[in-house]
Predict the 3D structure of the following.
Amino acid sequence: MIAETRFVQFESISLDSGASLAPADVAYQTYGELNPGRSNAILIEHAFSGDAHAAGISVETGKPGWWDSMIGPGKAFDTDKYFVICSNVLGGCRGTTGPSSINPASGKPYAMAFPVITIADMVRLQKMLIGHLGIRRLLSVSGGSMGGMQVLEWAVSYPEMIASAIPIASTARHSAQQIAFNEVGRQAIMADPDWNEGNYYDGKPPARGLAVARMVGHITYMSDESMRHKFGRRLRGKDSFGFDFSAEFEVESYLRYRGSQFVDRFDANSYLYITKAMDYFDLTNGQKSLAAALERATARFLVISFTSDWLYPSYQSQNMVNALRSRNRDVAYCELPSNYGHDAFLVEVGEQTELVRGFLASTYQREQAA
């Protein structure tokens, strides 16, 4: 399956902050075919550092999509049956308008003149894309981590537009610990002299700060057990300590590699804006409880969490489930066993596939019978 990124430009978008962006570009990919009734569309939401290239082999890079194991012919999101859409989020750096985009008012990248955004802003722009594609109602919206936050936002903001929701390894709001990890990453970037108050696009990017931010983040994606199995205390290419500060342990070398790799594909200012949007996200804003916030949701829900995920632990998914059940909503929940930590939603394909496949099939049947 060959995947090609497409682009659409909207005249403007109003944001939660009171600001607006004009114009607003969206990068997106689609897989499969939209049926004549336009009733088989599924929107996939990417996590923090993802992009529109969710599946297939990219025309641009020749690499598979970030969730290629779940999207495609015969897979969980079966493109022989469904029309699957994925777009890069607002504030990103892979084709959708973000801080690295050109500000029409200055002719230069927005940098820190880019307005602060929210998860709701991201979803508002996605709604515009779905309308542009001529789709009135989505069969499902699904995503893991930050993608799950967008799923929840869709469910309460545009309940009439989605038949089902599949938030995976996610939360209805960040805890103090989750905000703290994001703040460490932001401070690492802003402490890098090359950050230059965000104005680095004509010079040297804050590679050191962004690499450290990614290293911290990557630790939270793994579990203690997965790190023990993968690295232990093994030394890299030596049998004894060198008594210096080189990357002696395998885990040190791995984190440095991950950090440097991230710098090549992600924008530091996007890191700041997207993590802030995640920290701002709180589905209970203006509501007395999570149950009250989910009162508007009418979709069927499949909520999935993983036993070893300590970044978005299962209790946060269970809170969603309990809130939905208190409002007598149609919700199924499964906590899957895994040693991979938060990354499990990307690598634990087998059981996820069976759950999602059955859930989508029954949702489609219900929609056709309605």
